[in-house]
Amino acid sequence: MNPSRLESLKNWVGQCLSQTLETWEVASLDASYRRYYRTNAKGVSYIVMDAPPQHENASLWLEVACELREGGVRVPEVWQVNLEQGFVLLSDFGSETLLARLQQESLASLDRRFWYRRALLVLLQVQSVSAQQRPLYDGVLLKRELDIYLEWYVKVHRQKILSVSEQELWDKTCDLLIQRHLNEHRVYVHRDFHSRNLMILEKELGVLDFQDAVFGPLSYDVVSLLRDAYIELGEEEQLDLLAFYWEQARAKGIAVPVDFGQFYQDFEWMGVQRHIKILGVFARLCWRDHKPQYLAAESLLVRSLWKTCERYRELRPLGRWVLLMSGLDIGIVEGMTF
Question: Could you tell me if 70 and 148 lie in one domain?
Fold first, then answer.
């Protein structure tokens, strides 16, 4: 961060609080241009968001935060705002993510189930929020996200050029995926609802990184959580949690498919779209933004994608091609077949 901008940010926070800042530290380096800092004044901890206006839209973040808060979702409280500078002073949700809790070796399986179920209940709150003001997650946006994989993972990361037959396979399978997703019931979609964006608040969860919310397919955020790029769930555990979500959604009047088998296939196909997109996004973060740590998830993503594609005749060629493109030895194991 530019030293003069950092100094301006600190001065602004001090003026907002009318107090001397006792501490100042980096709280999180976002995958975007946003930066978060933690400061303390008279024993109270705050989070300071720096969203440079030339790169980030702080107004959009505030708008989505308001929508979610009104819907009963725990999001940070906003204490002060300077939109011209892109500075926002927020309440502090602490530093323990759901991912950190789930990765504790001492965490019992029942506690793990508790936290995933808690996250799914929070997701149902998100999905119950009116999405009339959110952009439509339409076929154009879905295709644009899929093409990030071609541009950054295939061409830049793997330095490959598609043949005519590979391009035809790509276009055909993308059309199948997009059509499946567009047939789903639409809800409020967080768009990055996973364990690193959920914060432990005693027995509750706070939600972060929601500014890209859209009105889109119901299964998207369920996939983001249960097929997380940062932690892997076994298929039996996934099915148990999916059944819990499906039952709770039906009880709340959210229009999940009546047939659980159809819902599970929607979930699987969305998992393919999400993992392809994330492989592209992580390659972009590595090569454009000099953040190679994100590609640590590459093997997990490719393995999960391949296993899913092997279960469906229409997706099998794509899964095998993605595996070939990766050049990875993923330790292939057999999955369930439908």
Answer: no
Residue type, 191: R
Checking if the pLDDT of 338 tops 80, the result is no
Last residue of a domain, one of 58, 91, 124: 91
Strand partners, 81: 88
Task: In whole angstroms, give the CA distance from residue 260 to residue 211.
Answer: 31
Long-range contacts of 113-117 (CB under 8 A, 24+ apart): 113/240, 113/241, 115/205, 116/225, 116/226, 116/241, 117/241, 117/244
**Mean pLDDT taken over the chain:** 93
Rounded to an integer, what distance in angstroms lies between the CA atom of residue 149 and that of residue 155?
9
Nearest-5° Cα angle at 92, 228 to 295: 30
Residue 334 lies in a domain: no
Distance CA(76)–CA(197), nearest Å, equals: 12
Separation of alpha carbons 222 and 241, rounded Å: 10
